[in-house]
Amino acid sequence: MAMEREKSAHAGALACPTCDFHTTVAEPNDAIECYRRHRSVTGHAIAWERTALDAAVETDDVETALDGLGDEYGEGVPLGVLTAALAERGVTIEETLDAIYALRMEGAIYEPRDDRVLVV
Amino acid sequence: MTRWNDGRDEIGAVSADITEETNALPARYFTDPDVHEMEKEKVFGRYWVYAGHANRIPERGDYFTRTIGGKQIIVTRDGEGDVRAFYNVCAHRGSKMLDDAPMTDPGSLGRITCPYHLWTYELDGDLASTPKSFEEATLNPDLDDESVRGLDPEANGLMEVTLDSIGPLVFVNFADDPDLTLAEQAGSMKDELEALPLEEYELARRYVSEVECNWKTFSGNYSECDHCQANHQDWVRGLELMESELEVNDYHWILHYQHREDVEDEMRIHDEHEAKFYYFWPNFTVNMYGTADGYGTYIIDPIDEGRFQLIADYYFRDADLTEEEEEFVQTSRQLQEEDFELVERQYDGLRSGALAQAQLGPNEHTVHKLHRLAQDAYEA
Lengths: 120, 380
What we know:
- The structure holds two protein chains of two kinds.
- Chain A is 39% helix and 22% strand.
- By secondary structure, chain A is of the alpha+beta class.
- In chain A, a hairpin with a 2-residue loop joins β5 (109-113) and β6.
- In chain A, α1 (28-42) crosses α3.
- The longest helix of chain A has 15 residues, at 28-42.
- Chain B contains nine helices and 19 strands.
- The two termini of chain B are 27 Å apart.
């Protein structure tokens, strides 16, 4: 099994421009929980404002990006890491999560742990 | 006297008399994860809690969802025009039925259908239909169709949540047999708010913030203004703080803030020449502005013991705000941000574990009430 990257003490910052809401998250997947909480009471999609993760991808295609990161995360790529990496390529959290849902429904990816995914 | 966690000081229950030494809720009730779990039942499961605004679901079948103390509910308008609340849980095998639909973006449906096995419910919660596979035993060789029992629509309907309203403000109570009616819990606040044309105002803005402190830390901060002079300098410039008053009632308290300069009556929804901020136990506020024709509400929603969401809604005559109203909302946001700094700083201190039991000043009687109510709830 591949070694996991060392966890970052500060994963980055998120914002909702409509709500003038800004927050920082310690763990990458805290961003996903925050996204869902905010969406459930506002309908708004928050976005990464900046990320402090060293996960980088060279594509804006979600499946390709996930495949590329999969080697480094044996227990699944945290959705927070994936969304942060794709945000650098201009893909929003909402777009990434929608694409992940579609890929999961197609059977193209699986979720070995909650909110961690890998390509089949 | 302040009580430290130094091995010498002993904490006590929140005193009935604010002048006594142990007049504040012990610090652990703000930082202990077990207390957060306990509050789901003892606070948010027993008292009347704000669910949302009826104006947002004007037509039959309109609905929004809410999660309160971990319980997910649907608030909808039935065929008779009544607002009702149900657990967002299918009577078949417990699936969550509807996706989240916040009050700001409500949904609409003719019937409530669970996507799992397509059990379908009327808007009054009664079971309307099930697929044929629940009426016939086609796949079960041990049963014939005649032995399949029928499903009574009411007995197999959705679980309803007790609901009542103050004007357009909708509240729910999860207790099987609530100790208090909404009218009893709200007391004079109900009459005061129902005398106002709250339903004539539209939801113009919703701002949601996540704050790193216990929800009661923010509630306490909202409830007193001893911190205002030092920390809300722009705002207090327009106030006569010494002429203001903090009024305490059984389950709500009112902050009456007097303004230095009076404004035209048309500039307020209420008659009194003041801002009236109501705090309604456990986690709801109604803010009747003194200098703007509108009102606001706060929901102080715990996420866990160390975080909460502030859901701030602003209601004005028209959802398209004037420049002055935009400016007013921005001032309100400024106050929130200033308060977030204060409560996060306070919580940083509380979390260090040094303080065992704080002490409240004589003008923090509203905070004392909050702490007493929390203690009563925990002991109930």
